[in-house]
Amino acid sequence: MVLKIFFPQCCNQADSGLLVGRWISSQDSAVVLAVIHYPFIPGHVKQYIQQMQAKSGVELSVLGSWSLPKDGQEGMESFLRDLSTIFPQERWLQINREVGKTGFTCQVLQRDQRVDNEFNLSWPDGRVVQRETKKKNEKVDEGAAEAGGDKEEQEEEEEKVIFVHYEQRKVMLSQLHPIENGVPDPKTAPPSELRQVQDIKKYDDGPLKSTHWQTEGREASIIVELLKQACVPLCMLIGWLLSVWTWICNIRIFSLYPLRFLSSKLSTCVQLSYRTEHMRLLSSPKPAAGHTQFMRKANIVVSLLVDVALGMLLIWWLYRDNHITMLANMLVPAADHVAKELDELLQWLMGAPAGLKMNRALDQVLGRFFLYHIHLWISYIHLMSPFIEGILWYGGLSACLGLTFALSLLSDMVALLTFHIYCFYVYGARLYCLKIYGLSSLWRLFRGKKWNVLRQRVDSCSYDLDQLRLVVVLFQGVLHLSVDFINSFPLFAMGLRITRPYRLAEGVKFRVLCEEPGTALHLLMEINPLKCSTVVQTYRTPTYSCYPRDSWAALVKKLFVGELIYPWRHKTTKTD
Amino acid sequence: MEDEAFTDINGKSISLDCQCHSSLCSEFIVSVPKVSIGKVMVYTCCVWLLAYAVFFFTENTAVLTSAIFITLAGMMFHIHFVKVDHESLLVIGSLGVQVSSSYASGRETTTFIEMGKIKDIVINEAIYMHQIIYYLCVLLKEPSDPDAVSSVVPLFQSSKPRLNCLVKVYKSCQEIISKC
Questions:
Q1: How distant is the Cα of B176 from the closest Cα of chain A, in angstroms?
Q2: A345 pLDDT exceeds 80?
Q3: Which residues 105-124 in chain B show a CB within 8 A of chain A?
C-alpha cells in the first residue's frame, strides 16, 4: 500500500524534533501538523498532546521524527530513532533532510512486526544510493503467502511513499464547499476537521517549542481588531434604534387596510422593511454560528456600506449647480410632449392606420377611452407642477440611506406618474392575448386545409405594441431589477474570492514537484478556488422580487406572448 | 517523453505527451494546434470591411468604434473562455485523478477526483449523427453502492483524440490503477 504523507511547507526548514499530527488509516495517510523541537521531555510532549486532544476532540499523536541536522547536532538521528520506543505507535516515520538538498528521505518502521523496512533514497547530486534491506519474519510471510521467490516478496512489502506538500495556512483558513452529493473530499476533510486545532496552537508559551503555520505570526490588522472592539456597543445602539423603529411601525393606525396594501406594494416601503430585517440580523450580539451565517452577515455589512457610499455620491452630485431645479423644469414639458405624441398616435389609429381596414366601432371606443385617460393625466401633472421641485429635493435626501432607496423612490414615482400608460398596456395586452389565442386556435384548425383569406382580418388597435408603452414598462422593470440586483449581490463573497481565493475552496489540485526516475514522488497540494458563478449562486441573499433569475429573457418573452407583467408583485420573503 | 503524430476526430493534428513521473504517477497532455494568424486576420478584415460599408451609408463614426470594440472583446473572450490550448490528465496511484484544461490566455481549470470515488477508467463509444466516436471517461461509483456507476466524467472533450491515442493513455492508466 502506498503511504501518503501530507507535509506542511512551513516545516521544511524547521529544526529537528518530533512530528505531531494525525493518522488517517482509511486513506493510508498521515497529516503532519507541527514539529516539536529538541530539547524536550517526552512526558511533557505526551501531556501537551493530551491537552490538545481534549480541547479539540481530534485524535492527535506523535507520528515520528524529523531531522534536519545543523552544526553541532550530530547523533541526533540515533536519539530520534530511540524515541520510537517511548511513543507507542503502529508505524513510526523517520523523515530526514539535509541542509542544501531539496529531497526528503523517509524510513517507515513497523513496530509490531519489528521489521526494518528501509527504503532509502538520496537526492541526485551524484550520490544515488538505493538500498533495500529486508529482514524476513514469520509474521511478514503470512501477509505474502502466495509469493514465491524473494524478489516478489520484496516488491509487495515495499512501502511506497508519496510526499504531498501543502501550505498549512491556506488549507487551515479555507472553507470547503461540498459537492452536490454531500460527500466531502476526504483529502480536505482532515484539514477541515483539524481547523479546530488552530485555536489551541495560538498559545505557544509552555515548556515546548514547536513550528507550525502560526509560528510566523498571524495575519491581522489593527483596524480589524479595533472594529471588533467597537462592535458590541454599536450592536447595542442599532438594536435600540431598531426597537424604536419597529414600535413606530406597529402603531395601529398603520395597519388599516389601504395603507397596508400600499406599503406592501410600494418598493420604497418594501426596501425599508428589507433593510430593517438586515439590521436586525446584524445587531444580534452573538457571533455568527458557522460559515454561512458569517458570510451572510459580512455580505450584508459590505453591501450596506457600498450602498450608503454610492448614495452619498449621488447626493453630492444632485445638490450642486442647481441640478434639481433643472430636473424639475424638464419634467413638465416632457410630460406634455408625451401626451401630445400619444394623442397623435391615437388619432392615427382611430383612422385608417397604414391603409388597414379596422373594426370602426371598437376603434372609436378604445380611442376615446384612452384619450380621456390622457387628458386626466395631463391635468393631474399640471396640478402637481409647483410641488415637483420640493418633492425632488426631499426625495433626494433619502439617498443618504443608500442608493437602493433613491432608486426605489424613483421607481415608485415613475410608476405613479405613468400609471395611465400601464393601464393602456393592460387593455392592449389583454386584447392582444385574446387575439393571439384566437388566431392560434384557428391556425390549428386550418393547418393543412384551405387557407381562408377572410380570417386574416386584423382587429383592434392594440395589435401594435406602442413603442412608448414598451419603453415605460421596460424602464420600470429595469429599475426594479437593478434594485433587486444590488440587494442580492454578494459583494463580500466576491471580494473574498478575488483577494483571498483560498478561503472559498471547491477542492484541491496537485502539481508534481520533481521528476527523477527512482526517487520518491513529491507533490504540491493547492486549494482549487470556487468559480465566480458558483460564488454568486451560493451566497446570493434571497430577495423579495417575483422575477426569476433569468429575468431579462422572461420579461421579453412575456411581452411578445402577451402575458401581463405586474411590476409591483412581490414574492413573500422566505424566513429561515 | 513521447510525441507521435495523432489526429482528432475531425482530422486536425494534435500531439500527445506522456510523462511518467514515477511508477505510481503519470501525466498525459494532449495539445491542440494554436489559433492561426490567418484566420484571425480574415475575421478582422471581414468585420472591419462590413463596418466601413455601414459607415459609408450612415456617416456615423460610432459604427467604426463599435466594430473595433466588438473585435477586441470577441478576441479576448475567445482566447480566455473558448480556445483550449492543452488538456492534461494526471493519474496518481492511490490518491486520485486530476483533469485540467488550459486555455489560450493561460487560464487553467482543474478538477480532482479522488481514488475512493473512481470505479474505473474506460473507453466508451458514442453515436453522434453519422459518426461513432470513442472517448475516454472516468466512471464514478456511488458511496452507497460500490457496484453501481453514479456518473461518467468524459476526458479530453475539447481535443477529442482518436482511438489510437486513447488506447495509449488507457493502457498506462490501467497499469497504475490496477496496482492499488
A1: 12
A2: yes
A3: 110-112, 114, 116
Lowest-confidence region among A121-125, A321-325, A523-527: A121-125
Please check whether residue A515 touches B, CB under 8 A: yes
Residues of B in contact with A183 (CB under 8 A): 143
Mean pLDDT in residue range B128-135: 92
Q: Which of A160, A183, A528 sits opposite B24 (nearest CB)?
A: A160
Closest in A2, A515, A519 to B93, CB measured: A2
Which of residues B139 and A332 earns the better pLDDT score? B139
Calculate the alpha carbon distances from A222 to A218, A219, A225, A229, A346 in Å. Answer: 12, 10, 5, 11, 67
Task: Compute the distance between CA of residue A528 and CA of residue A165 in angstroms, rounded to an integer.
Answer: 15
Specify the range with the lowest mean pLDDT, choosing from A5-14, A55-64, A249-258, B68-77: A249-258
CB contact, 8 Å: B94 with chain A? yes
B100/A509 Cβ within 8 A: yes
CA-CA distance, A161 to A338, in Å (whole number)?
A: 80
Residues in B closer than 8 angstroms to A162, CB to CB, are 24-25, 92, 94-95
pLDDT-based confidence at B112, cuts 50/70/90? very high
Contact A166, A525 (CB under 8 A): yes
d(CA A566, CA A569): 6
Which H or E element spans position A105?
A: strand A104-110
CB B157 within 8 A of CB B3: no
Residue at A417: amino acid letter: L
Contact B98 A509 (CB under 8 A): yes
Residue A192 reports pLDDT greater than 60: no
Specify the range with the lowest mean pLDDT, choosing from A16-30, A91-105, A495-509, B20-34.
A91-105
Lowest pLDDT segment from A230-239, A366-375, A452-461: A452-461
pLDDT of residue A8: 86
CATH number of A2-112+159-179+191-211: 3.40.140
Q: Between chains, do A2 and B94 touch, taking CB under 8 Å as contact?
A: yes
The amino acid that residue A94 corresponds to is Q
Chain pair A-B, CB pairs under 8 angstroms: 63
Contact across the interface for A508 and B112, Cβ inside 8 Å: yes
**A346 three-state secondary structure:** helix
Longest dimension (CA), chain A: 111
Rounded Cα distance, B86 and B100, in Å: 9
Distance CA A488, CA A571 (A): 14
Whether the CB of B137 is below 8 Å from some CB of chain A: the reply is: no
Mutate to test the interface with B, among A162, A165, A525 (most CBs of B within 10 A): A162
| Whole-angstrom distance, CA of residue A52 vs CA of residue A202 | 11
Q: What is the pLDDT of residue A154?
A: 37
**Which of B80, B108, B110 is the best residue to mutate to test the A interface, defined by the most A CB atoms within 10 Å of its own CB?**
B110
Beta strands A91-97; A104-110: pairing state: antiparallel
Please say whether the beta carbons of A394 and A401 come within 8 A: no
Confidence band (pLDDT; 50, 70, 90) for A257?
confident
Whole-model pTM above 0.80?
A: no
Q: Give contacts of B 8-27 with A, CB under 8 A.
A: 19, 21-25, 27
Does B24 contact A523 at a Cβ distance shorter than 8 Å?
no
Of A1, A162, A507, the CB nearest to B112: A507
Q: Grid cell 496511484 — which residue?
A: B93
Size of chain B in residues:
180
Q: Where in chain A is the domain with CATH 3.40.140?
A: 2-112+159-179+191-211
pLDDT for A104: 77
